[in-house]
Amino acid sequence: ALTMNSAAGTFTYHGCTVAAGSCSAEHTFNNNKILSANSVVMMVTAGFESQNRGGMTPYSNPSKGGIPILSTGTVGTGSVTFFICNMGATEIISGDLKINYIIYSA
After folding, report:
1. Which of 42-51, 60-69, 75-84 has the lowest mean pLDDT?
2. pTM score, whole prediction
3. Distance CA 50, CA 100 (A)
4. Is the four-CA dihedral 65, 66, 68, 73 of positive or negative sign?
5. Contact criterion met (CB below 8 Å) for 45 and 97
6. What is the dihedral of CA 17, 21, 26, 28, to 10 degrees?
């Protein structure tokens, strides 16, 4: 699990490995700004460092190192679950992901 307590920010998920065409196990993002299950948590990948790309970069060449996307799961008071999915057909994701997030709570 990862914990950050700001309404918006960036974190790096280290050591991500996801096979082509599949999703990771469920991860938990804890944040005290998530006030209820009605909160909206937006998460997007901002950069990706893989064995095949070299260096943290935006998606300038999606044919190398997989195509990572995020899928959010259950939102509850203080946390949200998410999955890292690889939309690439043949390349695995193996490296670090930079993830931006913003939380909207009423």
Report:
1. 60-69
2. 0.84
3. 18
4. negative
5. yes
6. 70
